[in-house]
Amino acid sequence: MGPEVPLDRTRGVLRPDELPRFTRAEPVGAASELVEWYWVPEWDLPPGVPSCQSVLSYPAANLVIDVEEVTLHGATTRLSHRTLIDSGWAVGALLRPAGFAGLAADTAELVDSERRIGAIDLRTRVARAMRGGLIAEATGIVGHWLVDRIGAPTPEMRLANEMARLLMTDATVLRVEDAAARLNVSVRTLQRLAHRTVGLPPAAMTRRRRLQEAAQRVREHPDEPLSAIAAQLGYTDQAHLANDFRNVLGFTASSYRG
To answer: What is the pTM of this model?
Structure first.
């Protein structure tokens, strides 16, 4: 077993100093098999002053409840943007594979896409809690709703959860073969499992983890050579890291560093 890197709650947020009020909460009880964590932004901006947030999301789905609707967002393959205006809130759940597969049978079709869910009662109850400033109650409502709707994960879904944990936290897992051996399954089995429960191939998940870590290192360690960051994170060379930045983020590592 390689060194496990805990899931960093700010990893993937490219400008964390520009975030609105942002709360993260842990799932409790049975919901912990379906949800990695809850994220709750709240904002109250001056009129005519928008806030644009850029996020390199985890390779996972999100269930999002706001004042207007409930949406299921599939995994993303590119940088996502959201512009906040006026005042508002959202309650999101970063779903584990068991949670996503329990809500959608076509996980791959939701990659880089979203779908509205007809859950009026869920939205109403969450909105009532948020109006009262009760974030813990709001996230608890979401957790109970997911457990009631999905039920207990199957052994296959628990294996998918373990797959995602391994791919997103173990820095020594650089190839699909590494993950398959660690989970004692074939590469083909692992690829099928990822396709059914995340919508992305395992290799895409490890590439996203590596780019998230690289962006965080570039931002937090301005004096560290890019060549050293590339080598430590398993890139072939600095050019490989540079290509990842340009192709996925749309800017260079040097310009991000400022």
So the answer is: 0.87
